[in-house]
Specification:
Structural class: alpha/beta
Strand content: 5-15%
Helix content: 40-55%
Largest sheet: 5 strands, mixed
Shape: globular
Distance between the termini: 33 Å
Radius of gyration: 24 Å
Number of strands: 12
Bound molecules: the ligand C=CC1=C(C)c2cc3[nH]c(cc4nc(cc5[nH]c(cc1n2)c(C)c5CCC(=O)O)C(CCC(=O)O)=C4C)c(C)c3C=C, fe (ii) ion
Number of helices: 20
Length: 531
Amino acid sequence: MKSLIQNPSSPSSSSSSYMFTPPSCLIPATRNLKFPLLFPRAMLTSQSLYRCSGVHMEAHINSNSSKICMVPRYSLGCSEAQCFVSKQSRNKYLPPVGALVTSKTEDVPSTALVGDDKIGVLLLNLGGPETLDDVQPFLFNLFADPDIIRLPRLFRFLQNPLAQFISVLRAPKSKEGYASIGGGSPLRRITDAQAEELRKSLWAKDVPAKVYVGMRYWHPFTEEAIEQIKRDGISKLVVLPLYPQFSISTSGSSLRLLESIFREDEYLVNMQHTVIPSWYQREGYIMAMANLIEKELKTFGSPEEVMIFFSAHGVPLAYVEEAGDPYKAEMEESVDLIMEELEKRNITNAYTLAYQSRVGPVEWLKPYTDETIVELGQKGVKNLLAVPISFVSEHIETLEEIDVEYKELALKSGIEKWGRVPALGCEHTFISDLADAVIESLPYVGAMAVSNLEARQSLVPLGSVEELLAAYDSQRRELPPPVTMWEWGWTKSAETWNGRAAMLAVLLLLFLEVTTGEGFLHQWGILPLFR
Ligand SMILES: C=CC1=C(C)c2cc3[nH]c(cc4nc(cc5[nH]c(cc1n2)c(C)c5CCC(=O)O)C(CCC(=O)O)=C4C)c(C)c3C=C
Ligand SMILES: [Fe+2]
């Protein structure tokens, strides 16, 4: 497979394992899902997902009896402190083999068989540069992704030169940010710890699965995780993006990559899998978010006067309005569900949602976080509690953008007290519920959910990679057909040479722009914005 990835440093990783027989007695919730799976807001209601016969239950799979039993929910007592294990202590039980994440502890057999099946969970995440030298190649990988910079098909040949150009321009500013949070992204460390906690939680629920981490733009790359999955002989795979809400630019991009890897590999073509595309509506996520907010509100003198300020990572507006990205709808529903949960606890604070971290010249989802902070200050709001909602780990945009830039802006704008809810990390309600989501999806591994009625009624929205992407692609606006030039001479070879000539011309123009400081990109205000 052709790889766009720039990869200067070597990977390191780890693994673990499990056994399971698909359960026969899981009772699906009685919801009728009429829309493509990428639109859970339209499909799902906020109640009904987590209750069974009025009692709060969870699916418990006993690998000995091969049955699912409904048992009262319990918690595992995993703390944030436990989660942030040092590199050394992790390495003790995380042998650096392949791309796997989770540990091999004493009680974990190296093979995880049930019948003939070996079950794996693949956590998908974005990845982040681990050192300052990684920043530019990491940015290249990000901007080389057609789901991040969406060029019309005719101009796809410009994707890599453009990615190179933008990544070089943006690297100095990004490096400053990563330098200020300790010289690199904490994402890998936190995602590894989440994978390990998920593995433990699955084991505690009698589902001894192996858990793998596949990052989209940095180590351990998805390709590395897949290689490890093949080496381990996994036969059934649950794919779980670590983004609560679906976006074309995040989960969608990772799934598209997986699809291309699956298509080209004989082993993977035959491996049964299912995908949990988004899970913001699950009780564990909602409860865990509400718990964190409730706790943080108590640090204010008058908690009831605090404005709860949900800040989500933005996406370009066109993703939602033209490409059918369900991200905004899912984000708004997430906020509604969390506020409903807080109301049940008699917390009825004012709240708002805004979008942060925009990049480039195009319009992004509004309102923008920075503008909203200023407006709130002008309106006389004095206490603000920022809640990062689109991502479950601390990363540059919480540690630098929110904690430093937005805090400073808020204090300048008249806000007197600023607070911030931590990212979920390894919060145990959250991890335990992710484990439940995996368990609930297991009966549908290989069932190819979208076309399968039973799977449509499952407790988590499920689908195969291919079907999910087909649902997403059907929402994409058709690109205009290629322009037909003269009949004569429009051969494959002419097309290739035309493409090359155009690429050279664009590179020349870019070069002239950078050296002279003048040109279209400057006129349109694009170039300075990438700095
Ligand atoms: C739900 C989360 C995210 C969405 C949606 C998203 C879309 C998106 N991001 C960019 C551009 C950049 N993202 C960068 C880093 C980054 N982004 C997310 C999350 C989402 N991105 C994370 C978790 C990270 C990694 C942070 C870390 O700690 O390493 C970066 C690099 C950092 C920087 O230079 O600011 C860029 C650039 C676009 C264009 C986009 C939607 C199209
Ligand atoms: Fe991003």
